[in-house]
């Protein structure tokens, strides 16, 4: 490798490519699909800087500069959507330790039938569709004839309208997510814990360590690398509150607390057909997310030697 | 009982009473979590068999009250639900087949250390996890390809799943030894034949995991249908469910009076029963395949 001539290198590379042509055939479908449906739209992002007109096409439409970005920054919806997006994602981010705690506790359950049933059951909600979960919430949380209404009446109190309150929107959104995904999200941590060498626990027992000490000095350090990787990925999505669930939960009563960037992008773009404006808001969102991801990855690499790449 | 030895080791060293108390608290916590997860789902089941006024008055807690099958009878009358069901099954089967073919092949190619340009190609894939054109440019692209409002849009354009490619790649790296390929090469076997006749038969674990992920994802998705479909005959089940459960289209059309009361009662019952019927396949299917899911998460968690 060290002493070869440049021309010999080139030839060898060519030989290695042609010998493995079959591998490129295997890659072809995925590459073509990404080029057509992911990379081509990236080029289409330039409509954010144009006055896009479907008849003239992307190239034919006149340039608009930063007009649509400024329009967004100066609009009433700018502060509302940014604020709601940040509240919901930071709130959701704060529940990050729950699956870790869940895994630590599950790991303490004695192996056996109860533990197996417990895990199977708590993973289950993850597989229910978002549409059904939101439908379920609307029925159960209805203050009139839902389960929550009945529970409050049992104690002689009046139930709050959880699905129709702007102030409570983020709480309902985040805690229903915890309900649906905490079991599933803990699997990766449970897997990490199951790889702990049992002799470590035995040695700790001999040294007189109690349960808490084993969790504190064996289990928790074991989870930190996984937790940091997932944490970095989460920060990268900080301004990317998912469209699907928020959009389904939105109604006229909670809209001031539930309009986030992604739902606004959808309404401006596909409901009122302001393509360039919508693309500009979307691009602004993507760039911030990407920058956050790079920043956090950089900080993490610098201070903890853990990073995504 | 292979677990018993472990327990005795743990207990013989620690006969402290505070551990007993902790143990009790732990199981109380577990029972509480089970209740929180299971009860809402159980409630939907009993509510679907109960008289809606009994549900509204808080009489339904443990067993159905005013037993009725009207919700399920009503279900049979709504043909759009069954059209949606059929479409979802088609999208799930075809979408999963395409997704597997595309992603597993790409994952295998990227797992090979002798692939020239591996780094650049990996970057080409991974970049799309963090950056994309966004809703409108993607929408315009789909329209340019004449895929808007077609069957194909639900199964083809978005079938590349980079995360699944990474999982497949990790699996192939750790479980297909490089010596196998070297031996096959000496026998004059090409890459494609090696992939089909040697790699795939050895990869049932990862194929089943990715198939399940894809199938569940397809079954539950509604976003692409919302954006790219207009023809009601192409709607998947989830979009129909959205109409019934969330946008309450039927309720809005109601007037007042006795006929309206009856219609409202049926609409309420229908909502419970439609949840049961649409979610049952996944819930029934899931316990049998759960171990594959767990395995998949673990394959994905192996970091290089």
UniProtKB/TrEMBL annotation, chain A:
Q: What would be one Pfam family of this protein?
A: BPD_transp_1
Q: Supply the PROSITE patterns for this chain.
A: ABC_TM1
Q: Which UniProt keywords apply?
A: Cell membrane, Membrane, Transmembrane, Transmembrane helix, Transport
- Return the similarity comment: Belongs to the binding-protein-dependent transport system permease family.
Tell me which GO cellular component terms the UniProt record holds: plasma membrane
Q: What topology does it adopt in the membrane?
A: Multi-pass membrane protein
Q: Where in the cell is it found?
A: Cell membrane
The record's listing under InterPro entries reads: MetI-like, MetI-like_sf, UgpAE/MalFG_permease
Q: Supply the PANTHER family for this chain.
A: BLL4140 PROTEIN
Among the GO biological process terms of this entry, one is: transmembrane transport
Q: What is the protein's name according to its record?
A: ABC transporter permease subunit
Show the stretches that span the lipid bilayer: 21-40, 86-106, 127-148, 154-175, 220-243, 275-299
**ABC transmembrane type-1 domain location:** 81-296
Q: Sorted alphabetically, which Gene3D superfamilies does this protein's record hold?
A: MetI-like
Output the superkingdom of the source species.
Bacteria
From TrEMBL, chain B:
Keywords per UniProt: Cell membrane, Membrane, Transmembrane, Transmembrane helix, Transport
Q: Which GO terms describe its biological process?
A: transmembrane transport
TM regions (residue ranges): 24-49, 89-109, 121-140, 152-172, 192-216, 269-289
Q: How does it sit in the membrane?
A: Multi-pass membrane protein
* The keyword DNA-binding is assigned to this record: no
Where's the ABC transmembrane type-1 domain? 85-275
Tagged with keyword Transmembrane helix: yes
What's an example GO cellular component term for this entry?
Answer: plasma membrane
CDD domains for the chain: TM_PBP2
- Any idea where this protein resides? Cell membrane
> This protein is called what?
ABC transporter permease subunit
Species: Paenibacillus sacheonensis
């Amino acid at each position: 490798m060290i002493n070869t001539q440049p021309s010999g290198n080139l030839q060898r590379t060519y030989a290695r490519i042609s010998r493995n042509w079959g591998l490129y055939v295997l890659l072809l479908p995925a590459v073509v699909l990404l080029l057509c449906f992911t990379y081509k739209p990236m080029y289409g992002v330039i409509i954010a800087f144009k006055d896009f007109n479907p008849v003239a096409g992307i190239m034919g439409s006149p340039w608009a500069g930063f007009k649509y970005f400024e329009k967004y920054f100066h609009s009433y919806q700018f502060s509302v959507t940014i604020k709601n997006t940040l509240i919901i994602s930071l709130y959701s981010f704060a529940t990050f330790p729950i699956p870790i705690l869940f895994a630590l506790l599950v790991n303490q359950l004695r192996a056996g039938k109860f533990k197996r049933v417990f895990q199977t059951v708590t993973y289950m909600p993850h597989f229910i569709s978002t549409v059904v979960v939101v439908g379920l919430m609307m029925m159960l949380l209805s203050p009139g004839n839902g389960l929550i209404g009945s529970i409050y009446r049992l104690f002689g109190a009046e139930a709050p309208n959880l699905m129709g309150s702007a102030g409570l929107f983020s709480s309902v959104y985040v805690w229903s997510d915890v309900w649906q995904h905490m079991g599933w999200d803990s699997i990766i941590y449970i897997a990490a814990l199951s790889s702990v060498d049992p002799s470590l626990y035995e040695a700790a027992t001999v040294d007189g360590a109690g349960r808490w000490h084993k969790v504190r000095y064996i289990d928790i350090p074991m989870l930190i690398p996984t937790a940091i990787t997932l944490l970095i990925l989460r920060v990268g999505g900080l301004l990317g509150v998912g469209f699907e669930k928020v959009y389904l939960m939105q109604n006229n009563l909670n809209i001031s607390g539930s309009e986030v960037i992604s739902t606004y992008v959808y309404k401006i773009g596909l409901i009122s057909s302001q393509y360039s404006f919508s693309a500009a808001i979307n691009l602004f969102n993507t760039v911030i997310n990407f920058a956050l991801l790079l920043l956090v990855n950089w900080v993490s690499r610098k201070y903890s030697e853990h990073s995504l790449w | 009982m292979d677990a018993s030895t472990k327990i005795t080791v743990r207990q013989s060293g620690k006969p402290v009473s505070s551990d007993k108390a902790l143990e009790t608290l732990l199981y109380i916590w577990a029972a509480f979590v089970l209740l929180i997860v299971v009860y809402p789902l159980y409630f939907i089941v009993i509510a679907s068999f109960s008289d809606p006024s009994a549900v509204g008055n808080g009489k339904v807690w443990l067993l159905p009250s005013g037993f009725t099958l009207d919700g399920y009878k009503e279900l049979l009358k709504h043909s759009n639900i069954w059209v949606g069901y059929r479409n979802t099954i088609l999208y799930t089967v075809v979408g999963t087949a395409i997704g597997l073919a595309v992603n597993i092949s790409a994952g295998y190619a990227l797992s090979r250390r002798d692939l020239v340009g591996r780094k650049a190609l990996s970057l080409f894939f991974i970049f799309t996890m963090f950056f994309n054109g966004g809703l409108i440019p993607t929408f315009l692209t789909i329209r340019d390809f004449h895929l808007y409002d077609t069957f194909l849009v639900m199964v083809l354009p978005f079938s590349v799943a980079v995360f699944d490619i990474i999982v497949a790649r990790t699996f192939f790296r750790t479980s297909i030894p490089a010596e196998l390929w070297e031996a096959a090469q000496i026998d004059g076997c090409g890459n494609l034949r090696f992939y089909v006749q040697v790699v795939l038969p050895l990869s049932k674990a990862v194929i089943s995991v990715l198939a399940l992920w894809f199938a569940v994802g397809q079954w539950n998705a509604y976003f692409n249908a919302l954006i790219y479909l207009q023809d009601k005959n192409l709607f998947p089940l989830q979009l129909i469910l959205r109409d019934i459960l969330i946008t309450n289209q039927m309720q809005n059309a109601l007037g007042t009076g006795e006929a309206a009361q009856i219609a409202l009662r049926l609409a309420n019952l229908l909502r419970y029963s439609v949840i049961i019927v649409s979610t049952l396949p996944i819930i029934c299917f899931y316990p049998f395949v759960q171990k594959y899911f767990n395995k998949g998460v673990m394959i994905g968690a192996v970091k290089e």
